[in-house]
Amino acid sequence: MRRFNLPDLGEGLQEAEIVRWHVAVGDTVAVDQPMVAMETAKAVVEVPAPWAGIITALHGRPGDTIATGAPLVDFQGESEADETGGAAAASDSTADAATLARGGVVGHMPETGEVMASQTLSGGRAVSSHRRSRVVPAARELARRLGIDVDALQGSGAAGLVTLDDVLAAQPATITPAPHLAHSTSALRPATTNGDIASTGELEVLRSLRRAMAQSMTLARDSVMECTVFDDADIEGWRQGSDYTVRLLRAITAGCRAEPGLNAWFDGGAQGRRVFQHIHVGIAVDTPEGLLVPVIRDAAARDAAALRGEVNRLKAGARDRSLPAADLKDFTIMLSNFGVMAGRYATPVVVPPAVAILGAGRISRDVVAVEDSVEVHRRIPLSLTFDHRCVTGGEAVRFLAAVIADLQQPD
Fold first, then answer.
1. Residue 258: which H helix or E strand, with range?
2. Contact by Cβ (8 Å): 351, 357
3. Is there a contact between 246 and 105 (Cβ–Cβ < 8 Å)?
4. Which of 278, 320, 361, 373 has the most neighbouring CB atoms within 10 Å?
5. Which structural domains are found in the chain, ordered by start?
6. Distance between CA atoms of 49 and 33, rounded to whole angstroms?
7. Per-residue model confidence (pLDDT) at position 217
8. E-strand spans in 114-208?
9. Angle made by CA atoms 185, 190, 193, in degrees to the nearest 5
């Protein structure tokens, strides 16, 4: 019998939820045949069979949450019935190498008893490590930022996997750890502590996008020194029906040209930053399941029609959860266009390693002074949050001034 554990699906997340099985116990599968659809905090990913053989056990049902590295599927290999000992082991090694060469498995996770040697991507720089405890990537990054020796922790996850909860529980006593919620394998199953249910109703454990958002916001709170500046752009010169989002994207590229330091990543541990020439804008998209941030690549190189087409594609894909993982990572700056619904100003949150996010509020008609008279003009409220560890106030306001100047140009 060979056991396949849930691999890291390439997004640095500690778990995934089973959406549907494509196979059943007793089925014979071929290498790379889709076995199960797993929903991560970002996308639905099809996990293929790493080996050919007969399915002998499925570890979980639709709606169950499986930790990265936990058992997923048990196989009886095609040759196991008449091969033993060293021959089977040699066959396994050959099959593993062939599968990895084909790219059939999404990432690679050692089997249950192994200790994993990991790599941490810090500000775009890969830092190799020697043999360590098995740790989910997000937990290792949080431990690094909090100054915790993650390899000294006892993991509470499957086969000793160190999770975010383990890192949070290891914080110094001067920091109040986040409350630990009882584990629930289904979003529809309430979590209780000692049989009690919250007086306001049943407690539902966060999963998928909302759980990822909670973890991301916790990391941002603990690792970013945020500061926000506010101003307004007068858009009275725009034609009726102007594309609000496209104009904001164009203005962000103008701001990045004026102050490239806001189109950057910051590594607090290494005390260094990476300033990018390309401008990849992450746009916050509200969905019923939670917040997603698809990425518009090379925004400065796209004309208005191309930007609108990409915005439409990404929003549709975000709402039906069909976007590939490649569309959901590596943004260099962010836009929160919350004003399409309501709200004038906000303090949008910078998500590391990025260093800036521009929030755009609801367009309003304001009374403004024009020379010696008073007029009513349309204006966009703007809120720019930046990481003050690596961005100065002067850089931030110069960026914002360039954004305003671009927005105030007539169509």
1. helix 244-258
2. yes
3. no
4. 361
5. 2-102 (2.40.50.100), 119-220 (4.10.320.10), 225-407 (3.30.559.10)
6. 5
7. 83
8. 119-122, 125-128
9. 100
Q: Which residue has the tokens 């990543």?
A: 265
Torsion over CA: 20, 217, 196, 288 (sign): negative
Q: Could you give phi then psi for residue 240, rounded to 5 degrees?
A: -65, 135
Q: How confident is the model at residue 84 (pLDDT cuts 50, 70, 90)?
A: very low
* CA–CA separation, 76 and 3 (whole Å): 9
Q: How far apart are CA 400 and CA 404, in angstroms?
A: 6
Separation between Cα atoms, residue 88 and residue 127, nearest integer Å: 35
From the number of C-beta atoms within 10 Å of its C-beta (0-12, 13-18, 19+), residue 168 rates as: buried
Q: What does the alpha-carbon distance between residue 358 and residue 299 come to, in Å, rounded to a whole number?
A: 15
- How far is 402 from 397, CA to CA, in rounded Å? 9
> Which pTM was predicted?
0.61
Specify which residues 140 forms β-bridges with. Answer: none
Task: Give the contacts of 155 (CB within 8 A, at least 6 positions apart).
Answer: 133, 134, 135, 161, 162, 163, 166
Closest to 267 measured CA to CA, from 355, 143, 334? 355
3-state helix, strand, coil in the chain (%, to 5): 30, 30, 45
